[in-house]
Design goal:
- The chain is an alpha+beta fold.
Length: 163
């Protein structure tokens, strides 16, 4: 390799001229900072708790994810049912009735004492009439099958002693 080739080949390292600051030298670090900042926001940003609207005997009420069972009971009143789903404790709120064709129950599930999720399920109201037919509600009260009376005269029913 000749001296001229050597000088040309390594001129980027041996040139005593000062490197001029160009626009791209500023844009690359700014782009890296912008992408890093957006990534940080995407990871740390938490949306506010989603409000859930629940129809109860007290009317239409709103609860939020993360509330305690005591806070929810203070807003919605007493639940109409309770169930266990694995580690979740669930309470049902709504207005079940046989006087309407259908009703909605909201199931609020808690895990570690915090409201985790709300499910809504619609139920149809069906009743058994005096002649044994199953009919959709609402029916007139005289069409409903009466509840068994205490101490009725039918032998062999649970809770009754036979001689």
């Amino acid at each position: 390799m000749s001296v001229a080739q050597h000088k040309y080949l390594f001129s980027a390292y041996t040139d005593p001229r000062r490197i001029r600051l160009q626009r791209r030298h500023l844009l690359y670090p700014l782009a890296v900072l912008l992408v890093g900042g957006l990534g940080y926001l995407a990871v740390t940003y938490h949306t506010p708790a989603t409000p859930f609207r629940v129809d109860t005997y007290r009317g239409l009420r709103t609860v939020r994810k993360g509330m305690s069972p005591q806070d929810v009971s203070g807003i919605l009143g007493q639940p109409v049912g309770r169930e266990q789903r694995g580690a979740q404790e669930c309470f049902q709120y709504g207005k079940p009735s046989l006087k309407v064709p259908y009703f909605t129950l909201h199931t609020l599930c808690y895990e570690n004492g915090k409201l985790l999720e709300v499910h809504q399920r619609r139920y149809n109201s069906w009743v058994v009439t005096r002649d044994g037919a199953i009919s959709p509600a609402p029916l007139e009260p005289e069409e409903l099958v009466p509840l068994p009376e205490e101490g009725g005269g039918e032998p062999g029913l649970a809770g009754q002693a036979t001689p």
